[in-house]
Each structure stands twice: as C-alpha cells, then as structure tokens.
Amino acid sequence: MKKKSFIVTALLGSVLILFLFIWNEQREQSRELLPPEEQTLTIYGESLPTQPDVMLAIDPASQTILSHLYEGLYRFGEDGSIEPALVEKLERSEDGTVYTFTLKESTTTEGNAITAQTFTDHFRKLVDDDTNSPFSFLLADVKSAKEIGLGQREPSTLGVKAIDDQTLELTLIRPMEGFEKVLAMPAFLPQLSAKAWDELETNGPFEIDSIDDTTVSLHKNETYREAESVMLETVSIRSEPNLSETSGMHPIPYDFDMSTVNEEVMTIRDVPRSGVFYLKPNVEKAPFNDVAFRQALALTLERTAIEDSLARAEQTTERLLVMDEKSAVKELEGDPNQLFEGVKQRLKKDEVEIELLSFVDEEARQISTKLKENLEQLDGLTVKVIELPLGDKVRKEVSGDYTFSLSGWQPDYPMLSAYLTQFETENVLNSSRYASESYDELLDQARVTENLDERNKILRQAEAQLLEEAVVMPIYQAGRSYMIDKSYEHVGYPVIGPSYVLTFTKKYEN
C-alpha cells in the first residue's frame, strides 16, 4: 500500500507541475505583447557604471551593463543560471584537461567577427601581469597561467589557442568538471579594446545610446546574433530614485516603507546574492587566539536577534557556503558559558573587553548594536563597537591591525571554493591570519578532484573545519529586492555576476 500511495503521490505531483507549466504558457499567450515602440524599461535609483574595461570592472553596476553590451562563451540565462552563449558545442578530452569549444558566429557593432582568436587574445591579456586584472586568478587552473603571473613565462604560452575561426582549445593543468561555468563571468566578455562607454565596440543584445552623470541609456543592438529574440528596444538606467513612480523597475533601499507599494500594478522580487556577512576574528591576537573563546562567541550568537535589522531580501545563515544546495556537514556544539569561564581562568581575568569593527552605515549600526547586546550575554564580556569608513576598515583588516570585525565576502566566480581560499595560510586575502595544515590539505585535495560532487564534499569539510574552530561566524546572506511593474516578464536575477539580466525581458499589456 505504501508503494502504491507513493506512486499516486508522484503522479499527482507530475500532473500538477505539468498543469502549472501549461497554465503559465497559456497565461503568457493570453497577454498581449506591446509593440516595439512601447518595449521600453526605466530603472530608477540604480548605481551607474564606472569602469568600461571588462578586465578591471569590479563594481556590480559596471559588470551588469557590460553583461548586456557583450556576449561571451557563456551567459546568465533567463532564470539566472549559467548557460552556453557563443558555445555551440563543448568537448572534453579523455583525461578531462582539454576543452574544445565550437563557436557560434558573432559580429560586433562595427562588423568585426568574434572568433576563437578573439578569445585567445583576450585570455592572454587577462593573465598578463601588465594588465593587472583582479580577475586573472580565474585562469589559475589553465596551463602556464601561474608561471605567467610570476613572470616566468610569456602570455603567449597560456594553454589556450585558436584551432580555426570557430574552434577554441583550452588546456587545464588538471581535470576539473564544471570549470566552464567560470567563463560566464564578465571578465571573459570578448572586448576587442577598452574605450569610453559610448565608444565601445560590442557584440551583445544592447549597445550604449548615451551616458552622463545621472543616466545610462541603452538601445537594442540590431546586429546581435539573436536580435529577433530581444524585445526591449530601449533601457534607461537612472541614478535618481523615484519610488512613487508605479512603472519600470526600482531597487528597494534599506529603509523603504513597503506598505506604500501598490501591489495591484507592482510586484516585489527578493533576490538572494552570493555574498555572506560574518564575524571575522584575527586568530593571531588574544583572546581570539584561543579557539574556546571564539567558540563561546559563535555559540552565543542568536541570529534571530538581527532579523528585524536586515533588508527584506537578506536572510540569516549559519553557512559560509551560502550558494551550496546541500546541508552543512555538521554544526558547532557546546556550552558557551562553560567555554568562556575556562577562557577567563586562563586569562586570569573576570572581565574581558573586545573591540568589534563595523561600518559607518545605518544597517551595520543596527546589526552591530544587536550583536553587542547578544554577545554580552556572556558574563564578564564587554563589546566595544568601532565604526569606520569602508576604506579605513579594509586597511585595518588587511594590515592585521584589528581583533574582531563585522565583515563580508562576495565571491568572484560560481564555485564553492570561492568562499574558502581566502582562509588558506599563504593567501594574500587571509586577514584572519588563520593557518592550518589540515585545512590547506583539504583545499589542495579539492583542486585535484575532477568530479564536481566529490570536490564539493571536500569543500564542505573545509567549511566545517572553519565553523568548528569558529574562524568565521556567519550571520546573514546578502540579497537585493526589486519593485517592478507587472507588465514586464522574464527579468533574470542571477545569484552571482550581473545584478539582473534583461536580454529576455518582454513588456505586455497589463
């Protein structure tokens, strides 16, 4: 009977999914698509781009605009996931180290072809030390990339070459399943040359119409290879917010009163992002060099206490690997009060005072205040919050001139290792000053593990070690909320990379 019941339930579930799919298709077909002259979108209150060079653009606004101006080997699709773009076919060698990409045809706004040689030249320039790109590390697993970065070899020796115009070969130093997803990041967009924004030669779905201090205007690129699938004719991105406007798209600011939203014409989208905020101790400095003290703090954390201080799309988490779909390997256990009593005995103190670095920001102020109240539940602990401008705060962390910090990290590429490498002993980003042979060995083991599932299992063990030793104390996952006119469909919201994707967006009659 149980087996029969399970089969019936599964069938009903499948029927329901099919019904919802058909209903959604019929619903969309029943809506009238607006004519081309009305296929426009205005985004209010959005940050404007600052860096037109794809190899140097680190701010989300620039990465988002560039992802609409160019199309690379892979792209962020309608649902925000990574999918092939100019890649027609991918083949891997038997040993898994050689990737052969067969490319689709693509031309720029000036009629120049994007070929395998375009990508070969681009990859070589990206890894060249003279370029000084913060994204050159993304090619660390490509043959000769590390030696080029150390000045031991020329960029021409990089493991990438054009077999012919439409065939690109990429050679890794070891097999690594899933490596190709890294190629969706904006740093790999085929930019023939970096110029001013309004002079860029592009091959993507949109091109720059005009740009000034307050507005960026885009229009559809008629030379784009899939131009017939791009419905939006113009996109206007304005830095000035106008939340009273019941049309277009609006990033929702932290302190916005949601009760003012007209839900009959506007919908709210809460979008999780890859970033994670956490408490970061400097494990070289007392009392944070005592693992029991760090564990006492981690066990005392009550994340529910800060929920009211978070933006609506942000959510509390006990994970560092916030993009991971699997559960954590294990959770930290113990009695924080007993651990802290032991710490005080070793320090021969009844009172312990620590400083917590925080940001000069209203949300951070609320969060750090509640964290202070929460941690001071430990009898004899005093937490002094120090607010600093971002630049000053970062400089203190990098120099190691701190003991405890409310910090954050937003990975540059869609792999779990992106969260973990900063805690390796020799990593230049290791401002925690954490040093562990066993941790380093786990990451080295992950690097030589080809199978993605097996590799991620090892990385979860590395995360578990960080959490167990309270080297990092996760608090919440980043997120962003948007208010958008209900007449728009098919806006993509990636977890990593560009903030949104408008390539597939359509505007219908309400």
Secondary structure layout plus pairing:
Layout: H1 2-30, E1 40-43, H2 60-69, E2 74-76, E3 82-84, E4 87-92, E5 98-103, H3 116-127, H4 145-149, E6 160-164, E7 167-171, E8 206-211, E9 215-220, E10 234-238, E11 249-251, E12 266-281, H5 291-300, E13 315-316, H6 336-347, E14 352-359, H7 362-375, E15 381-388, H8 390-399, E16 404-409, H9 417-420, H10 437-447, H11 452-468, E17 473-485, E18 488-489, E19 506-507
Keywords:
510 residues; globular; four-stranded mixed beta sheet; 11 helices; alpha+beta; 19 strands
What does this structure look like?
The chain has 510 residues and is α+β, with helices and mostly antiparallel strands. The strands form 6 sheets. Strands 11, 12, 13, 16 and 17 form a 5-stranded antiparallel β-sheet that branches. It has a 4-stranded mixed β-sheet with strand order 1-10-9-8, with no helix packed on it. α5 runs antiparallel to α6 and α10 runs antiparallel to α11. The N terminus is likely disordered.
User: Low-confidence runs (pLDDT<50, min 5 residues)?
Assistant: 1-12, 14-24
Number of helices: 11
Strand elements, count:
19
- Give the amount of beta strand, in percent: 15-25%
Largest sheet: 5 strands, antiparallel
Mean pLDDT reading: 92
What's the SSE pattern? HEHEEEEHHEEEEEEEHEHEHEHEHHHEEE
In short:
The protein is α+β, with helices and mostly antiparallel strands and 510 residues long. It has helices spanning 2-30, 60-69, 116-127, 145-149, 291-300, 336-347, 362-375, 390-399, 417-420, 437-447, 452-468, and strands at residues 40-43, 74-76, 82-84, 87-92, 98-103, 160-164, 167-171, 206-211, 215-220, 234-238, 249-251, 266-281, 315-316, 352-359, 381-388, 404-409, 473-485, 488-489, 506-507.
